[in-house]
Amino acid sequence: MSRRHIDAQQAAFDEYHDEPGALPTMRARFEHNGSPRYLLYTIKRFGFDRDHGFHLDVELVSDELESGMETIRERLDGGGTDLVDTDYISVARERAEGADIVAIHPYGRTVGGLVAPEETDIAGLEDLSGKRLGVTRRLDKNWILTRAACREFHDFDPDETATLVEADSRDSLTRMIREGAVDAGFQFWPLVPELTETGPFVEVLPISELVQRLSRTDRKLPIATFLTGESSLDANPAAVRAFAAAARDAVDRLVADDDLWVDIADRLMRVDDPTTARAVRDGWRDMVVRDWDAETVAGMYRLFDHLESVAGAEALGVAEIPDGTFRPEP
């Protein structure tokens, strides 16, 4: 993504940035190509932050700053940021290593789907043996979830019965799928429509379904969460609760308002095709998690246990989720 496009996105946010006045401020620093920006934009555009008594300051960060949890930890611990997002396994890992971070609200089931040519004979998990399967990398959570589900429900591990091909990047994986270098590929959810809406490809296995089966809960289970520094939460719990309320309002608006998505596609997406933009909209609506409770958190623990049994604590970087990682009621 060009610097010009990133600046254009930031300008879309800045149009709705006003002075905080006496309101407490939450400083949000989010990736310029991450889907949480749709929710944050909605909060700013409709003033949901002010409605709930705080000021949300959003800055989109560029590729140079996207270096994983180390950067997230530095932003939160360093005092320059109050709000970021990442998957809850990373939150648990960094908290276990002493990071002053805590998950305070769900974001969504940020997983992907297995995409294959329309004429594929892959109909489900039981058909993966003997196939060449593409992933961005071996520790991709889509692949680990698939292995866990195959072991749990079909008594085999596709890591032993299929051929895994690592693409190293999402763009390279898309090329491999298009060129037929693999029988199917596990692509991240916002990129699935680029294949299924523009070419002869189908999503044969939504990984979100495996998340729900493995977690054994009917509540939609988040993989990614919003997080803040624990010291920030202790110092200003009202602002954190206000963000959660504003996020719920934004989700409600994004689920109901199709016209809003036309504006988002124009100002925040790289997608020119309206059909693909609508598919991203529908995927976001299926992915997002509006709220969570004790049942949701219990499911997140169960899912972690499945992932640890497949990948191992060394690969995940943490043997268990530390106490206090999740705060459903901050």
TrEMBL record:
What does the record give as the organism's lineage? Archaea, Methanobacteriati, Methanobacteriota, Stenosarchaea group, Halobacteria
Q: SUPFAM superfamilies annotated for this entry?
A: Periplasmic binding protein-like II
| UniProt xrefs under PANTHER family | ABC TRANSPORTER SUBSTRATE-BINDING PROTEIN, ALIPHATIC SULFONATES-BINDING PROTEIN-RELATED
What protein name applies here? ABC transporter substrate-binding protein
SsuA/THI5-like domain residues are 56-257
